[in-house]
């Protein structure tokens, strides 16, 4: 179901006209209120009046995470502190936190796009939505919460942690939708198994999963184990939080990015050149309506592509293809570029392996090494050692064939790798400690 039929089905021409008006307003606002952006305009030799088409956006430089860090905490805010009603922050894996401030209207916009997103996944006001994204400075919990409330659904604000208790809550409250990271969904499922709860017997029918990269193979695994539709939701704190883009149940193919609020571009991550529609590169987003901390051409570091072909659901907003990785998560193993998700896809094709895996990168005698630790399921674990060893060899061979990199595959006992309550930690790079 569409939450906001008019906006979600705007013909492209109207959508672009709206984007241009909003872009011009945005440029005027940041020029007047944010010294950082005024300087950027001046250095580029232009004023907001020079932005006459969407294409003119190219005249402005990118904004990067480092810029937000340099102006920590509030230096890029575009409204007086009095107008900020909420702060969130993302720590990321390295460096100083990035702080985002929301005005009342920003929170309303966020609730709107998050509600649209849940509706696209097939959730409506009759649903009970169990939110197991963390509540706090992380945007996941409160973002999904705001969307579900705006939709008129019943929200269970479970947050992360107490996993077995959450499995009981899911059963007892009869949640029909679950919002959390895909890795935490599997963790919840395992806790349910241990407590004798089969998710397939519960009323649960929709998963709204995101905040970390995952693959089509992992989707199939989750759907089969839990008996639900596992839907992909995208977002990032700097731009808003969950609900920047969302898959629709009708096509389950690419995430509609709400273009009346966010203007996407795809660039070559090395040269910064804007790539033609359909090509894969780094996603760059301009926030068209945000008031607290608007961003012009923000480099997300997420690798994806834009699909402008019409979608069967009737929504006209462009679709982001599944995130292939982050340009800063890409591993370079002896010169070969490898994304963790490529390895995940290969692992998930082997029967008996679980989606619980970790990549350990090291440097031994000046050579990069990559060890893939992956848990096997109980059935395979009970098999003979010989069989397990031959499976390790087969996976190593497949990875070498498809990705061109030599690895060491280590099959691990079920439940031996650490579980995360939020984003899974897939990479341990020991080279960084040396
Ligand atoms: O993870 C916001 C969010 C919360 C999105 C809940 C979806 C659901 P950050 O902590 O700032 O914000 O992390 C943003 O997470 O740049 C991507 O690299 C990654 N990410 C988010 N959603 C997806 C997804 C939240 N569906 C970073 N697929 C982003 C792959 C994703 N990666």
TrEMBL record:
User: What CDD domains would the database entry show?
Assistant: PaaK (cd05913)
Q: Which reaction does this chain catalyze?
A: 2-phenylacetate + ATP + CoA = phenylacetyl-CoA + AMP + diphosphate
- A GO BP term, please? phenylacetate catabolic process
Q: Gene3D superfamilies, alphabetically?
A: 3.30.300.30, N-terminal domain of ligase-like
- Residue ranges annotated for the AMP-dependent synthetase/ligase domain, each copy included: 79-286
Q: Which family does it belong to?
A: Belongs to the phenylacetyl-CoA ligase family.
- Please explain the role this protein plays, according to its UniProt record: Catalyzes the activation of phenylacetic acid (PA) to phenylacetyl-CoA (PA-CoA).
Decide whether keyword Nucleotide-binding is in the record: yes
* Quaternary structure and interacting proteins, as annotated: Monomer.
Tell me the protein's name: Phenylacetate-coenzyme A ligase
Keywords for this entry? Answer: Ligase, Nucleotide-binding
Domain AMP-dependent ligase C-terminal, residue spans: 335-431
Q: Does the keyword Nucleotide-binding apply?
A: yes
A molecular function GO annotation: nucleotide binding
What EC number(s) would the UniProt record show? 6.2.1.30
Instruction: Provide the top EC class.
Output: ligase
**What pathway or pathways are given for this protein in its record?**
Aromatic compound metabolism; phenylacetate degradation
